Predict the structure of Ferredoxin--NADP+ reductase.
Amino acid sequence: MQIYWTKINKIIEETPEVKTYMLDCPEGFTWEEGSHTHFALAGFNAGEKPNRSLIRHMSISTLPHENSIGITTRIREKCSEFKTILRNLEVGSEVAIFKTHSNVPLKRENKNVYLLSSGVGLATFRPIVLDYFESADNVNQIHSLNIDSSKNYLFADIFETSADKKFTSQFVDNRKDYYEQVKNLAADKDGLFYIVGSDEFLVQNMEILREMGIKSEQLMLDKRKDMLDDFLTSVYEKEMLENTK
């Protein structure tokens, strides 16, 4: 496993609670849209075993041609040890990235693509949307639906409806409206549905989509293949149990 040590070159305050940490691109480091990485703070590997409290699984919110690795995250007033340390880092601080992979690259199968996210989950979708804007080949259109009760919506300059680009951006601030919109989108029985958020959020979306006739192969989740299989198995077993009651 190769660990890339790099430095923060810019800190962007996206909203009062969300920051993007822009990192220098280490030599040889590559990624694609929809990628995630392990983001670690100084000292995480100082002992015999890695200090997992100093490591987080984070999406990369930029594309390679932007020449910086963007890590976008929410930092609330009361937060974990990791977020507390991160909040106090400055430009020039050193961090590490490793085990980078994309579970949700943009599929170009001449279908409609639906991006379903909660809050800062938009960070995963930002590079996917930018990649689509650069080339819409074999993608019919993209519709983004995000729920964020803070109403401080992220990346408003990118997530803006554009008929010319065949892109629709929708923000809602409550779950009732959000899930009603998911049902509306599921009227497209041939679409591809990307879902990013907590496990609870994933399960709720999957249950609604499957009830609406969307098949498992149409669902794209930001999980590794082995974790995805276990996750799907547990969800389907729960559904079967509920159906037998």
